[in-house]
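Troubleshooting: if your tokenizer reports a length mismatch, compare your output against this known-good record of 243 residues.
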Amino acid sequence: MSTPDIPIIVTRAEPGASETVQRLQALGCRALHAPALTLSEKTDTHLPPENKISGLVFTSANGVRAYANRRNDREAAAWCVGPATAEAAKLAGFSNIHESAGNAVDLAHFIAAERAPSNALLLHVANVAAAGNLKRELERQGFSVAFAPLYEMRPATRLPDAVLDHIKQGLSAIVLTHSAKGAEAFASLVEDHPLKFAALVAISEPASAPLTKRAPGQTFIADAPNEDGLLRALKRALATLSA
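Known-good structure output:
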């Protein structure tokens, strides 16, 4: 999978950015650490009493970590979308973990298939910008749902010097995007510089859109909206570039 001459710019926010960089380095790739977003926890968000919650719904590993920083309870069922979120729940000490593939709406369908609705709340922990599709779908299925935005993603003010120098020199790179907001933030940070992308690799179509007009290279979309799917798309990109 390695193509050492083509660096991979990782735009993911921390702490996930470092995790992705480590995975890429283990695969023999040269990774450039370039978080386009920074995470800020919202400590003023009200949380329902623990005894009123029948389960926690996590759509990101950051949501798991933000909740774990606020509370010590680990007995409630943790409904997680994707392996990275489930792994974060495991590391946080949750034992009753249910993992669904796909996106947030898929998770809602998974929950509805696995348990009957009740008046006790399901608490969806996510970022401020979460679209609310999961909450609406669960409520349509008869569940009572509360939304707890425990963190927000803010655009970074600048990129690391090594990344900016690479871009300013007009050197080629593969850009990895994990979200539409991250792609928008990265596009804004480099808007004054010419871009020479060998390929754009995105976790979803929306995560590619902010850069496709500026990226002359090929675009590769993950076959599943998670880190494993993104790395499979990267593998396809590298194979294409090496052909």
